[in-house]
Amino acid sequence: MKVRDYMTANPIVLYKEETISRAASLLLENRIDGLPVVDEAYKLIGLVTKSHVFRAMKNHFPEETPVGTLMQTRLVTLYDDQQIYEDWDEELEAGRLPVINRSGTLVGILTRTDILRAFEHQTRKTISQLDAILQSTYHGIVAVDLTGHVLSINQSAERLLGISQKDMFRISISELVSDATLLNLLLSLEKKQMVRLDYDGRKLLINHTPIVTDDGKKIGMASVMQDITELEGISQELTAVQKLNRELDTIIESSHDGIVVTDRSGVIRHFNQAFSRMTGVPGHEAIGRQEEELERRGIISQAVSKLVLEKKKRVSVIQHVANGSVLLSTGTPILDDETGDILQIVMNCRDLSQLNQVKAELEEAKQLSERYHSELEVLRAQQMEIEGVIAESEEMRNILQMCMRIAPVDTSILILGESGVGKGVLAKLIHQRSDRTRGPFISINCGAIPGTLLESELFGYAPGAFTGAQQKGKPGLIELADGGTLFLDEVGELPSDLQVKLLTVLQEKRVTRIGDVKERSVDFRLIAATNANLVERVQSGAFREDLYYRINVVPIEVPPLRKRKEDLFPMIRYFLGKFNAKHQVDKRISYEAFERMQTYTWPGNVRELENIIERLVVTTVEPVIDVGHLPKTILDRQGSSVAFPAERKEGGAEQDMGIERTDTILTPEQEKSQLLSLYEKYQSTRKVARILGIHQSTVVRRLNKYGIQQQK
Length: 712
Known about the structure:
flat, Beta-Lactamase, CBS-domain, ATP binding, DNA binding, 5 domains, alpha/beta, aromatic hydrocarbons catabolism
């Protein structure tokens, strides 16, 4: 794939004599970020971007200023005859790359969208080629998912099963295989296996292979089937041996797989050209020799016929060939119907090298496509790596995706939610992912500072503006946020007079310090947050309606922790790791304690959870934080009896990252030993019950059951 095939030809250009006013008009009309600059010979000499125009306007350059005085001359360019497979990681950061020919003439522009289109075209082509291969093979091929529903079927399989492709996608494989035991066996296969199936008067030889992902997860099964009805019928008739041989020769030679036939001693009697091509062994060197001799000469890694003769059953092995090929070879014994002795061995050899190569190429194309696509979309994995941002629930994932989507857009944001839900964390996240990340992040809680002091903090003051003012004056937080982000927490508590001043700053982008007449230009992004109902405050007159609409451009409502309990476990895990590291301890939390924390409503939300976890890490003496260590507010909120550990099922994922589950299944001897040890140590059924996270009456009942004497 060459650049010229996918670039945007005949791009809009500027000449160096044209003005920045002309450049601004073209950028705006065509909604693009940059324009190439060429000379009279259409040679590329520079690039003008929106940043150049904005900078010129900021510095009050005349509109007639030629773009040649502003343009960027150090450029990254591509040649139109370059291949798109070349490594352009650094160059593609520009987003839009000028394309020139070998004489330096501008011929087009290549964007990330053009590159994605190129790789999509290549991927579709590869998939089409693979489909053509599947449809052209003689063997029937069917792929099903773990429920038995058909995912893919080729024309040969349609012919063998007598069902059209259209009908197959509406039925389950269970409707074709009436034997439930066989069906369950096929769907539960963990490795490749060959079976014979009688279907609609046909005898099918089917090779079943589990379909697994790269991480080893089984997602379905692929079956390659061959109709051997006629072959078996002829093989049972000794009088038709010659005819059978001719038919077998035809089948063997027409097969893309390598096929080898040996006698009962393992001597090679016949093999097809496919096997000769795979191994590089010509016919005159192998016919009449034992397969073991090929193994001794190092041509193949092991002889399949030897294994079949030893085990007297079908055997499949991986053979490594001296020329580098890797074969999946299946040896099938042909038995005498009367004596059961092996008459011949038929080996089917499939070249895995070619399939692996096609698979690798397809995977590479897929990875490249995903790689470039990830530059346009924010990946969920990147979101989860951000420290302090936990998004396991669907609600928080959607909110996080919204934050990532609006972060680059320089507009006002209003974050709504109860106290402690993490509004400040989201504000910092948006700032870090915005174009203002290099600028300051200035935060202030409007409800925590008195109104008179809040005004001087926000707007600053001139020297001598009031008693106690600094002699040199002081810039306000609005000025300090210039070039960055201003986060106003609890904005609903802002006094009415300051609401007017803030609205003026937002509209005019200028601020005046207290006691001063000089206006100062400011450029900041406003993120506001509140736990109050601003609509009601607007209706009651406590909050200005015009300011509300100014800050409520993009509202984000964060649900309380009680409405997203899916986030509770990962949050506990995160805070536990954080405070273990901070205080240099290794505390864990029992599953019973975690269950009790799940029943709590968390009125203080994430802030309360963080506070409690740190308190437990610092104050708990035992290595495991149990139910008895939890604060009274949690224990009194919603109690629940917990079964004795031996009466509960063993846990699983709760043991990960600090949640320690104590409810393992115990034998009576282990249960008695555990109770005796704890009771001898603490001499109190209440303490034993607290440690185990169960009711005291359960401890008493168990002690009596095992004859353990209690202290009076």
